[in-house]
Amino acid sequence: MNSKIFTFSLLFCLQFFFSQEKINISVYNSQNNGIPGAIVTLSDNENNILFYKETDANGKVDFHNKEGKNLNISVSKLGYEKHVEKNLKAEQKISILLSEKTNQINEIIIKNTKYKDTVAVKTDHPSITEKSSLRDALNKAEGFIVTKEGGISYNGVPITKILVNKREVFVNQNKIALDNINMEAIEKIQMVNNYRDGFKVDFDNFTASVLNINTKSNYKGILKKSLQGLYGAKNAYLIKGSAMYFSDNINAFFTTNTNNVGEKDINTDKLDGIFSLSGNILGESINQYYISDNLVKKDENSNNNLILRKQWKYSRLNFSAEYNYLNWEKSTLQRSYYAENKEPIRDLDNSTTNQGNYLNSKIMYDIKLSEKSILSIENSIINNHMKNFLSGDLTTNSVLYRDEARIIPNTFAINNKISYGGLISDKILVSGSTSYFYEKSSSNFSSYLNTGIRNNQSLKQFNHVFDFDANINYKHSNLLTFYLFSEVKSVDNALFSDDKKYQREYTVSDIYPGIRGKDKKWEYSLAVGQRNFSFRNQSDKNNTDLMISGNMTFRLSGGANLILDIDKSNRVEDLVKGVDILYTSLATVNTGNIDSQYNISKNFKIKLGYYLSNIARSKSFNIDYSFVESRNIIQPVFTNFDGITTYYRNIIIDHVYKNNFNISWRKGYYFSTENRKVDFTTKFSYNRSDFPINNTSDKYNSNTYTISLQTSLNLKSRIFNDISIAYHKNIQDININRKNVNSFTVNSFFLDVKSVIGKFENLLSASYSYSPAEGINYNTPNLDLLSSYKYSDKISFFLRGKALFDLLSSNNKTKDLNVYSDGNIITETINPYRMKYLMAGVEYKF
User: Fold this and answer.
1) For residue 46, what are the domain limits?
2) DSSP labels for 745-808?
3) Structural domain ending residue among the three candidates 174, 192, 217
4) CA-CA distance, 99 to 77, in Å (whole number)?
5) Following CA atoms 131, 133, 137, 138 in sequence, which dihedral angle do they give, to the nearest 10 degrees?
6) Residues linked to residue 512 through DSSP beta bridges, in sequence order
7) Domain check: are 789 and 729 in the same one?
């Protein structure tokens, strides 16, 4: 009995205690109506922010003042005068009257100069609905840059991991998440700047920046499935399905997309490590699956992805697999002429068809040997079979030739790796890994010219790479950790070209002493060391070079980052570039350079950028500059034309300089109490490339300028939610010895209109591009459409269209123009085709 009385008394006291801490804040207008969405900020007398939240639908918000401090309160709302009171005594109820002011373009200002470990990504843009993808949401958020290929950066910091409910799901697989997770599954999106992988060992202050998605409660621990099918004009079709399961211990994600309209749900990020070890045959053939190109005549493909991540208390299993089928056709017109006098060389009207099947898988198992040591085992496999068919009409000196060719590349590669990392003490960290990579690739070329000339070539390539590395770190303080990294790589390359064999065996040894550090404002790493190339049986080709690797991020106040990257590296060129005679395309031959087998190309890059985003002020500003110096690189250059065949020769270019400058600015202004908004965006970029022609005193230089202006209106009206108007201008100049030999300009106008009316969502995108390029009819209108109707929670109907003007017209005008030069000849590539369709269909959610 006494225990029951005691428990009841304790609960009563606790309830009374917490009720004294709870403060009810009411915000109302002159009509005594509560104001929803008013921003309430509470701080103490030392200006530490204690509370920041919007009022609810009744204009109310609650705050628990656990320390009973006096408060400074700030309340703001668009369309009202800002209200500020200082040193306010803590009371249970606080009522605040906001005075209306005349509507005008204005902005909410919330000053917060502290760097936050977790930042909420704003997703309440009027054009973002439950059908919007993660990509759509990030494109509208301040500070994010999202590329078509799936690259994500926030304030200049690259993001390679996307968590779901704070668990790793998408690792180097951004594009799959961006295009397959919709807002209907997302509760909130967060930038986590202090993420620490529980199965990676490092000192506590070294953390990573990742993107975290918190799903809605009905997506946790429940298998969600959907299937979408569309069919339309000229037999266009798309069948897309997905299944996802997210929980604390197991996460699974599956997508399948089979279509003939060029849609792809894949990206190459997770293969970067293998590409750095493989030869040209593997890299060039697999890249065909990942190219997203709308300027094609046909594009049938099937992308299937499976991600499975299971976590136990002391271990974790990560598995991903990908199967792709490809069958696409591209037709172009290539015009080649001499750069010096613009005398025509040849016109090639060609068609390329690529067909293939490609499978890759990766499995990784991490196990905690102790709380401070991790062992990781990794296996990756790639298998690819492809057929490339080429045909073209070659016109030279008014004579027409017909050429047909076939290239059949096949590749298989496997990579096995074991890694260990462990903390010996709070000050000492050791890690190391060993791996073995094996590749077997082949490529068979055959061509027939209607003059009776036949060419055949068979290539077989074998690569073996053994890799050992070790790393030791000593932590002096958060901002100063010393480390020593060493690596030894044994490489055996063999290439068979018909009956001739090219072989190279060498060892690469690196040793890097370095320093690194991180705290709330600074993060940096700097290593300076040397790399030694030792060629077996070719000691005169041995080489030692200085290596530098460094990066620095300084977090300024107001949400800005200053980032510096510097890298000096080198590598051995692929054996294919040393083949005496290499048939690469229609009536095109590359002659090799045997010295290139032992050529070591050198690369130096430095990049400095300033990146600012401020959600409260609705603005962002980015500016960056990069310089790249490449030396001793192998590049094919034009040598001669015999009337039918164009000959190139791989030569070692002394140097190539590249400069890149980018600046962008975006600012938003609210102009009504309903948070209607206007956004202004301006972008400018400049790219310059310089190199000596054939290593002579003649200089090649190209300049590319891009200007972009965009205005968006977020109206939140019953008809129009979002209207965007943009103008792009692209200018390219090619100069030899400061004399212009080619110049062209492309002007483009864009209009996007999005509306949400009840259960209907519509997005209409129109554009018009033209170029005054001489002799080219580049005058291209375009119209895309995406409409949906939500019939029920499980059923939705869709109408999708792309390049509708082209669909209704049989006139194959120029859709794109690309100009390239090696300093000797200029080649214009004209694309007359673009992917076009109009489809209707349904989506069902199981």
Assistant:
1) 1-102
2) EEEEEEEEEEEEETTEEEEEEEEEEEE--TT--EEEEEEEEEEEEE-SSSEEEEEEEESHHHHT
3) 217
4) 10
5) 180
6) 485
7) yes
φ/ψ (deg, to 5) at 180: -125, -5
Two tokens at 34? 């509560």
Q: Tell me the C-alpha distance between 683 and 665, whole Å.
A: 7
Count Cβ atoms below 10 Å from residue 221 Cβ, excluding itself: 13
Q: Are 595 and 613 in contact (CB under 8 A)?
A: no
Looking at the structure, do residues 682 and 775 belong to the same domain, yes or no?
Answer: yes
Compute the residue count for the chain.
Answer: 846
> What pLDDT was estimated at residue 228?
96
CA distance 17 to 264: 58
CA 448/CA 644 separation, integer angstroms:
13
- The model's pTM is 0.81
Q: What would the mean pLDDT of 303-324 be, rounded to a whole number? A: 94
How is residue 784 written in tokens?
């895309």
* Residue 306 predicted with pLDDT over 50: yes
Query: For the chain, first and last CA: distance in Å?
Result: 54
- Other CB atoms within 10 Å distance of the CB of residue 695: 13
Q: What angle do CA 16, 19, 21 make, to 5 degrees?
A: 120
User: Among 25-39, 45-59, 436-450, 591-605, which stretch is predicted with the lowest mean pLDDT?
Assistant: 45-59
pLDDT > 90: percent of the chain: 49
Q: How confident is the model at residue 75 (pLDDT cuts 50, 70, 90)?
A: confident
The position carrying tokens 């008809």 is: 719
From 118-122, 620-624, 828-832, the region with the lowest mean pLDDT: 118-122
Tell me the residue type at 423: L
Q: Report the CATH number at residue 20.
A: 2.60.40.1120
CA distance 608 to 623: 9
- Model pLDDT for residues 693-743, shown as the tens digit of each residue: 888 888 999 999 999 999 998 876 667 788 999 999 999 999 999 898 888
Spatial CA neighbour of 32 closest among 91, 102, 96 = 96
- What letter represents residue 588's amino acid? T
Phi, psi of 579 (to 5 degrees): -65, 135
Q: How far is 213 from 188, CA to CA, in rounded Å?
A: 6
Per the domain annotation, does 716 fall within a domain? yes
Rounded Cα distance, 292 and 263, in Å: 8
Domain assignment present for residue 337? The answer is: no
Residues with Cβ within 8 Å of residue 433, at least 6 apart in sequence? 417, 418, 419, 420, 467, 468, 469
Sign of the C-alpha dihedral computed for residues 102, 105, 111 and 115 taken in this order: positive
Looking at the structure, do residues 84 and 127 belong to the same domain, yes or no? no
- How far out from the chain centre does Cα 769 lie? 26
The DSSP letter of residue 184 is G
User: Across residues 314-320, what is the average pLDDT?
Assistant: 94
d(CA 841, CA 333): 36
Last residue of a domain, one of 61, 76, 102: 102
Beta strands 93-97 and 22-28: pairing type? parallel
Q: Is residue 302 part of a domain?
A: no
> What pLDDT, in 10s, does the model give residues 323-358?
999 999 999 999 999 988 889 999 999 999 999 999
Residue entry with tokens 């076939």: 406
Beta strand pairing call for 49-54 and 39-43 = antiparallel
**Ramachandran region of residue 11, left (φ > 0), alpha (ψ -120 to 50) or beta?**
alpha
Q: How crowded is residue 551: how many other Cβ atoms within 10 Å of its Cβ?
A: 15
Q: What is 549-564 written as a DSSP string? A: EEEEEEEETTTEEEEE
Three-state SS for 719?
coil
Query: Using CA atoms, how far apart are residues 181 and 136, in angstroms rounded to an integer?
Result: 10
DSSP string, 679-703: EEEEEEEEEEEEEEGGGSS-EEEEE
Q: What CA–CA distance (Å, rounded) separates 827 from 350? A: 14
Q: Could you tell me which residues come within 8 angstroms of residue 119 by beta carbon, excluding any fewer than 6 positions away?
A: 190, 191, 193, 615
